[in-house]
Fold this sequence. Notes:
Oligomer: homodimer
CATH architecture of chain A: Orthogonal Bundle
Number of domains of chain A: 1
Strand content of chain A: 5-15%
Mean pLDDT of chain A: 92
Largest sheet of chain A: 3 strands, antiparallel
Shape of chain A: globular
Amino acid sequence: MSTQPIEPLVDLLKTLGHPARLRILALLRDGEMCVCQINSVLGLAPSTVSEHLTELRRAGLLSERKDGRWVHYELKPKAGLQDLMEVLWPHLDETQPVKKDLKAARAVRKTPLEMICAMDKPRRTAQKH
Amino acid sequence: MSTQPIEPLVDLLKTLGHPARLRILALLRDGEMCVCQINSVLGLAPSTVSEHLTELRRAGLLSERKDGRWVHYELKPKAGLQDLMEVLWPHLDETQPVKKDLKAARAVRKTPLEMICAMDKPRRTAQKH
DNA sequence: AAAACGCTTCGGAGATTCTCGAAATGTCGA
DNA sequence: TCGACATTTCGAGAATCTCCGAAGCGTTTT
């Protein structure tokens, strides 16, 4: 029987307790995405998205893969976190923002990266919060 | 297929993302406790404990029962939250503060309420955060 | 080589959270 | 009835979080 500090669990739950981060996780469940793709779906500033991704990675939920000027993030919960995520998905899938995001993501995934990033300079549709 | 807002889920996770609140939940898994009993185990100010309990109740995790001047809180996750809690317990049980709390709670439960509350006036042992 | 591009880091403004002690509320016992 | 008591509410200070735009860093394109 091992004894762990409680902070990692607290940090994980704190990380999960934010709508943008939950939406990112739901998006990545359909496969990896780069920052500008996520940015395009969420309607937040690129720096904000990048910060959320960094925190999700720190919490042990994502892995990153650099490819030229793009950075792709993939859902990859580390050992011992899968059970928590598995029970989370059904709750997440029922929510309105996630349904909407997944639909938007299907379109985004079909579009070449060069085009998406360029497109999202002006756009700022932004689902509130 | 129903569509829910995402905020309730976010609020729940935010509520869970705090060490004192996780420790309270772990305590109550062994049965209801009143504020001064929890206060005695956690070593936080009574008002702080009361506020955490209120938040846990608002999140749909606890129910309260008044008995004279005491208020007993019981673990009672509302429908649709049990699965999340079930997957949380094993993670929580492995942590050092929870193990320590449960041991302290066993002693506290054997002591009459009048005595516990009186005892904890001066005491302020306080596991740091 | 220079410009454009995607992403991250930094600085800061505004909002939220956390904790406590003081004061308020309701209950019990002398 | 009055004082003691358990709990809650309130107010305030400190700490943390969230978001953005500006600036910085590598990579690619021109």
